[in-house]
Amino acid sequence: MFFRGIKEDIQSVFQRDPAARNSFEVFCNYPGLHAIWIYRVTHKLWIKNWRFLARWISTIARWLTGVEIHPGAQIGRRFFIDHAMGVVIGETAVVGDDCTLYHGVTLGGTSWSEGKRHPTLEDNVVVGAGAKILGPITIAENARVGSNAVVVKDVPSNATVIGIPGHIIESDCNKQKVRRERMEQLIGFEAYGASGSSYDPVAKVISSILNHSRVLEAQLGTIIDELKSRGISVNSLDLPGIHVADFIDESELDCEDKDKTDK
User: Fold this and answer.
1) Among 187, 215, 250, where does a domain finish?
2) In which domain, by residue range, is 19 found?
3) What is the pLDDT of residue 256?
4) 224 and 96 in one domain?
5) 58 with 173, same domain?
6) Do 118 and 248 share a domain, yes or no?
7) Are 40 and 10 in contact (CB under 8 A)?
8) I need a surface site. Which of 13, 101, 179, 259 has the fewest CB within 10 A?
């Protein structure tokens, strides 16, 4: 059973890592798999109440692979940790089948109390590099957590979460599936670091407010100039400055201005 699991783990790598060339290379050079295989041994020891030995072997595995998996965690089949380094999985964490974690992921707790205090990842969940999933929450099946996200609330199935704190881009339903897939293509789930085109809902709202304020200010200036040209006195107020460049990319404004010019 153990060796059959090793073969299954190796085969699962080819579905998720285009850099994998052959089974021997994967067997020898993927520390994420080594960490999982050692975990499976330590977990059996943990269940049999050989807990000091389980923790000692787990500590050695951490030195060798850069991955810390508590022997008490529950991990399903075909689990893959890509690049491995810096992954931490707590004692009461539960990971389903076919899940993928990238480097720097933490499945951590938020409480010192006993009992369930780490996350549950259901089947086919993907967690991007550097993401932190904290507390006894559930990330439902087929969900994706973007790189560097911090998730402290439950995530529904087929949803994509990004940002700090985590924002759900779109959860799946029959009428919204196409829209969700399109949004992921545009603003996307990112397994690795955030790109310049990453979508942050809060930043976009702030940008929209600032653009609206800028247009209103220009419109009011036009009105005041017109009133003064007709001899109507208008009291001037000192308004605090808003530096749009501090909040949004100037290239976005250039694109907007170009679109208006084209129209």
Assistant:
1) 187
2) 2-187
3) 47
4) no
5) yes
6) no
7) no
8) 259
pLDDT of residue 172: 47
Same domain, residue pair 176 and 229: no
CA angle centred on 172, ends 174 and 142, rounded to 5°: 125
For residues 168 and 203, which has the higher predicted lDDT (pLDDT)? 168
AA letter at 82: D
Contact at 8 Å (CB) between 50 and 67?
no
Percent of the chain with pLDDT over 90: 17
Question: Which strands sit side by side in the sheet containing 138-139, from one edge to the other?
Answer: 74-75, 94-95, 120-121, 138-139
12 part of a folded domain? yes
Written as one letter, the residue type at 103 is H
- Other CB atoms within a 10 A radius of the CB of residue 87 amount to 26
Question: Tens digit of pLDDT for each residue in 97-114?
Answer: 989 898 889 998 887 778
Which pair of structure tokens corresponds to residue 260? 């208006």
Do 60 and 148 lie in one domain? The reply is yes
Report which of 216, 214, 204 is spatially closest to residue 248, judged by C-alpha positions.
Answer: 204
Question: Could you tell me which residue, 80 or 173, shows the higher pLDDT?
Answer: 80
Q: Model-level pTM? A: 0.61
In contact, 127 and 106? CB cutoff 8 Å: no
